[in-house]
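Small ribosomal subunit protein uS5
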Amino acid sequence: MEQNEFGLVEKIVYLNRVAKVVKGGRRFSFSALVVVGDAKGAVGFGLGKAQEVPEALRKATERAKKDMVQIPLVDGTLPYEILGEFGAGCVMLKPASKGTGIIAGGAVRAVMEAVGVTDVLAKAIGTNNPHNVLRATMAGLTSLRSAEYVSQLRGMKLEAPRK
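Structure:
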């Protein structure tokens, strides 16, 4: 895990070279998909496009930092099982007991490491397109609600508060 000077974890999920065919030949550009998190519950992702790789990465990282969201975590895992969907991508995320580790692949693993989840079971269903899998993962994570928040919505008191 790469940590920058602000203590943020940056992960490159996908780097793609695309070609535009013009009269003189092919013109290449790059797109980068990056996940940024603080490993304490905040995570964001960004897509950057440019003529050069470093510029695409910079743009993606900037966008990811700008769009960070807070995710409720319970002892290094998720509070409950969740299903995130985006396009054809569907990601199932299950909380796991301590010591399990991150059992996930590709884009899902990058997001989990950036957000600070240490134990989780995940399965990407439907597509293996990194863009859709990443957005499905983020959709699932952003729909998570903490026990405190739900009890406040219902106007009830928690018997045993959870961390």
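The longest strand covers residues 9-22.
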